[in-house]
């Protein structure tokens, strides 16, 4: 399996320009199934999750091309209603295809996605939402069969603001008859981007970004062209890379409200962040300050997808920080790997841990446990003058486009060793 060898100690600084958000493009790609026409999407990141989703769209009969950040999907002739098991089992988030599939077809069959490294990740809320809209669901030997007995607007009240369940509910409701009202919807910016994409193709969705979303069903949708929003998590990760190595970073394209939950914590650690000309400028702290408590929560709280990277930052702080992961039950797997690199981390409970800053980290061979945990290890390695080897980087490649090239351009000494799987 491929790995990175990082010889740290260099400042990570300069200008950063990166493509759109993984968590926005994946539901948008699912939404392309609905218009029975062409979708042209710009600013699409070249990451393995996008290529995986392309395979899923092609497997149902869509014609897809991707080049230089532009994705074109023609879903006119899509006609396969069963999603092959290998896809859903490999990429858990492919479950967001379910709402769009049943919005378009009378029947769809998809495998149960199961858990993943960061938690069990059930889909009960997705299924309850679809049932509310009139979809009959049969769960059978690991498969979910959805029958469109009817598709009618209704009231959906989520007991937890799940991002994926909110997206699936919107996707299914777009072509329902009547009005769907979603209460306690997730408020993540990526849901707003999905709304904007759908409305450009003729849907009537309003309220995304708040906890109440209303969808008025429409009969027909049309061709659409759209630009994906910047990736707040990838940007936040590079901001920490600079802050940790005493570099200045200029990011050319950000949405301030998307960045604030992250910027707020980085300021507490001593960073200076200024928004200007549509981008931002980060100046590193002279001394990294510890943050008393970092508790992840749904947007606009501190994102769970930045927890591991912020933890690396705190391993080199001047005091004690407590991290409380409230979204996923198993999202501390990077702790053991960071400890191998010399971090001082103690578990208080399964989802609360305490980090006491150390003066420096040391090199070792480590393994990416998951996507963001892997990014956290890259950040740690950037501070270590000796060579650190990070394996299982396929996790990182799910969500970071060309991380080795971007970091090299910003001053890092990072080598990717490709090992082709036999
Ligand atoms: C592709 C994508 O956008 N992924 C993001 C999305 O994942 P995803 O959409 O899977 O995350 P959810 O918001 O659904 O999950 C949050 C919590 O709700 C639980 N839950 C969820 C659905 C359900 O039916 N039942 C249930 O119990 C989950 O197990 C988890 O504990 O939001 C997460 C939370 O911001 C992010 O970390 C992921 O990067
Ligand atoms: C957990 C993440 O993604 P996914 O939901 O695709 O696994 C993530 O982006 O950090």
From TrEMBL:
<dbReference type="GO" id="GO:0071555">
    <property type="term" value="P:cell wall organization"/>
</dbReference>
<keyword id="KW-0573">Peptidoglycan synthesis</keyword>
<comment type="pathway">
    <text>Cell wall biogenesis; peptidoglycan biosynthesis.</text>
</comment>
<dbReference type="InterPro" id="IPR001986">
    <property type="entry name" value="Enolpyruvate_Tfrase_dom"/>
</dbReference>
<feature type="binding site">
    <location>
        <begin position="121"/>
        <end position="125"/>
    </location>
    <ligand>
        <name>UDP-N-acetyl-alpha-D-glucosamine</name>
    </ligand>
</feature>
<keyword id="KW-0131">Cell cycle</keyword>
<keyword id="KW-0670">Pyruvate</keyword>
<feature type="binding site">
    <location>
        <position position="92"/>
    </location>
    <ligand>
        <name>UDP-N-acetyl-alpha-D-glucosamine</name>
    </ligand>
</feature>
<feature type="modified residue" description="2-(S-cysteinyl)pyruvic acid O-phosphothioketal">
    <location>
        <position position="116"/>
    </location>
</feature>
<keyword id="KW-0808">Transferase</keyword>
<keyword id="KW-0133">Cell shape</keyword>
<dbReference type="GO" id="GO:0009252">
    <property type="term" value="P:peptidoglycan biosynthetic process"/>
</dbReference>
<comment type="similarity">
    <text>Belongs to the EPSP synthase family. MurA subfamily.</text>
</comment>
<feature type="domain" description="Enolpyruvate transferase">
    <location>
        <begin position="7"/>
        <end position="407"/>
    </location>
</feature>
<dbReference type="Pfam" id="PF00275">
    <property type="entry name" value="EPSP_synthase"/>
</dbReference>
<feature type="binding site">
    <location>
        <begin position="22"/>
        <end position="23"/>
    </location>
    <ligand>
        <name>phosphoenolpyruvate</name>
    </ligand>
</feature>
<keyword id="KW-0132">Cell division</keyword>
<dbReference type="GO" id="GO:0051301">
    <property type="term" value="P:cell division"/>
</dbReference>
<dbReference type="InterPro" id="IPR005750">
    <property type="entry name" value="UDP_GlcNAc_COvinyl_MurA"/>
</dbReference>
<dbReference type="GO" id="GO:0008360">
    <property type="term" value="P:regulation of cell shape"/>
</dbReference>
<feature type="active site" description="Proton donor">
    <location>
        <position position="116"/>
    </location>
</feature>
<keyword id="KW-0961">Cell wall biogenesis/degradation</keyword>
<dbReference type="InterPro" id="IPR013792">
    <property type="entry name" value="RNA3'P_cycl/enolpyr_Trfase_a/b"/>
</dbReference>
<dbReference type="InterPro" id="IPR050068">
    <property type="entry name" value="MurA_subfamily"/>
</dbReference>
<dbReference type="InterPro" id="IPR036968">
    <property type="entry name" value="Enolpyruvate_Tfrase_sf"/>
</dbReference>
<comment type="function">
    <text>Cell wall formation. Adds enolpyruvyl to UDP-N-acetylglucosamine.</text>
</comment>
<dbReference type="GO" id="GO:0008760">
    <property type="term" value="F:UDP-N-acetylglucosamine 1-carboxyvinyltransferase activity"/>
</dbReference>
<keyword id="KW-0963">Cytoplasm</keyword>
<protein>
    <recommendedName>
        <fullName>UDP-N-acetylglucosamine 1-carboxyvinyltransferase</fullName>
        <ecNumber>2.5.1.7</ecNumber>
    </recommendedName>
</protein>
<dbReference type="GO" id="GO:0019277">
    <property type="term" value="P:UDP-N-acetylgalactosamine biosynthetic process"/>
</dbReference>
<dbReference type="GO" id="GO:0005737">
    <property type="term" value="C:cytoplasm"/>
</dbReference>
<feature type="binding site">
    <location>
        <position position="305"/>
    </location>
    <ligand>
        <name>UDP-N-acetyl-alpha-D-glucosamine</name>
    </ligand>
</feature>
<feature type="binding site">
    <location>
        <position position="327"/>
    </location>
    <ligand>
        <name>UDP-N-acetyl-alpha-D-glucosamine</name>
    </ligand>
</feature>
